[in-house]
Amino acid sequence: MNITSLLLIITIILIGIALIVLQILLSKRKNSWLGLILPLLSFSFSVFLTITAPHWIRYEEWTMVLIFVLTNIPTVIFSGIYLFYRKQNMNEISRMNIQDLE
């Protein structure tokens, strides 16, 4: 493994970490639509890659399904982060409402 490959791997990992941190920050915002930005962009990108894949690879159905599934891994991760922090936020609001009633 040469230095260029190592730098590429480190860069990809750092970009992934930065995107996860960004998703966490967006999901914690009061505006719930902000947390959906990265999952929607990721899903759109996966659909784009799946549609354009026959132009740059040999077309087979299982290959297209595999491309769609693999490119949606970030979508699932971003959506999971969004749902986790939305649920956590809703629990805090419920607790505050219960305390207000007492």
Question: What features would you describe in this structure?
Answer:
- The protein is mainly alpha-helical and 102 residues long.
- It has one domain (3-101).
- 79% of the residues lie in helices and 0% in strands.
- It has 4 helices and no strands.
- Helix 2 runs antiparallel to helix 3 (61-71).
- The longest helix is centred in the C-terminal third of the chain and has 29 residues, at 73-101.
- It is elongated and about 65 Å long.
- It starts with a helix and ends with a helix.
- The mean pLDDT is 86.
- Give the count of structural domains: 1
* Largest sheet data: none
Terminal residue distance: 64 Å
Percent of residues in helical segments? over 70%
Please compute the radius of gyration using only Cα atoms.
19 Å
Number of helices: 4
Number of beta-strand segments:
0
Q: Structural class given helices, strands, pairing?
A: mainly alpha
Integer average pLDDT: 86
User: Unreliable runs, pLDDT <50, ≥5 residues?
Assistant: none
Beta fraction of the residues? Answer: under 5%
Q: Name the helix and strand elements from N-terminus to C-terminus, one letter apiece.
A: HHHH
- Shape from CA axes? elongated
